[in-house]
Design a protein that fits this description.
The complex is a heterodimer of chains A (about 190) and B (about 200). With about 190 residues, chain A is of the alpha/beta class. Chain A has 5 helices and 8 strands; from the N terminus they run βββαββαααβαββ. In chain A, a hairpin with a 2-residue loop joins strand 1 and strand 2. The radius of gyration of chain A is 16 Å and the shape is globular. With about 200 residues, chain B is mostly helical. Chain B has one domain. In chain B, helix 3 packs antiparallel against helix 7 and helix 8 packs across helix 9. Chain B is elongated and about 60 Å long. The chains are: A alpha/beta (about 190), B mainly alpha (about 200). Chains A and B meet through strand 5 of A and helix 1 and helix 6 of B.
Amino acid sequence: MTALLSFDNVTLRRGGRVLFEGLDLALSPGEAVHVTGPNGSGKSSLIRLAAGLLRAERGRIERGPVALADDTLALDRELTLSRALGFWGGKVDLALDAFGLAHLEQVPVRLLSSGQAKRATLARVMASSAPLWLLDEPLNALDADGAERLATLVDQHRASGGAVLAASHQPLAGDWRRLELGQGSRA
Amino acid sequence: MIGALIARDIRRGSSGLTWLPAAFFLLVVALMPFAVGPDARLLARIGPGVLWIAALTAALLPVERLVEPDRADGMLDQLALHGVADESIAAAKIVAHWLTFGPLLLVAAIPGAGLLAMDSSSLIRTEIALAVGTPGLAGLAVAIAAVTAGLPRAGPLAALLLLPLAVPLLIFGAANALLLEAAVSLLLTAGAPFVAGAAIRAGRT
């Protein structure tokens, strides 16, 4: 069983400050890791490192295809939700349905509430075929129903051989391995 | 994905104020007779140069909309995750930008030449030079847009960076030295995706 993501002795420096060093992390199919830590401890940076959007100062990072949901929308606001998500391809209808957005298909993205927009970014992750999901603060703006749907989908994704790396200061439902940042972290 | 990206950028570029750079171009041209006087011979002589100056200033208008909105909205990040190289994103943006900006400018140059009392042979020569030079201008605009994306007061800074770099296009374009104009335009168009791609990568935080 090969790891979907592995960090080997990774050090990250942002703006002259070391956020973490010597971080080791491996995610195999079926695993889920919840990154916690105080504000500014590098949770989001860890997610962006895992996505390949940032470069580590030291260490090696290996990964397969990933899908990312963070606090940016990356959907064209003037298009309808299904067309905007359709730009990114994948199983859009299925994902819209899974996040309870099916009735908003024909609504322009600019009219979505922040919770609906969050569901849309999570739906993009789900629609992609990437085995590794990277979720940055997935519960922000999400209501109880949204959080429940997310937990179910995360479980389904893990059962089908996927893995999830989520950063959140809120507790996540389900069975997560925890990685605490902020004090010489190891996991 | 590249085709979809070009189509998307054309759609976004041509919704709303597409005509704005062309209208600005005509406005700058229309100011010229007021500035130098209504002497038709003088206007016809400086006409090609005036059209080029107007084209350069009009090219500055859309620069802030080319890259920054997509950077701020996470579009560039998601494209990278979908396996699109930053250089390919930039190349797609150059193609889409030229298609929404170049042809309109070429059309606007026709009434522009009329305002400057240029004869038809002079107009045709200038149109050819503009057609050859505007792809280089589009490349330059996207590269500068990527370099300045996310900076405060990016608009004035972009103008300050773009205009000096466009001087070779201006010299060979206004002098109607078509081969040299084509060489400069080719260099800018071919180099811009790499500059813009590197800038997009460096801008990720």
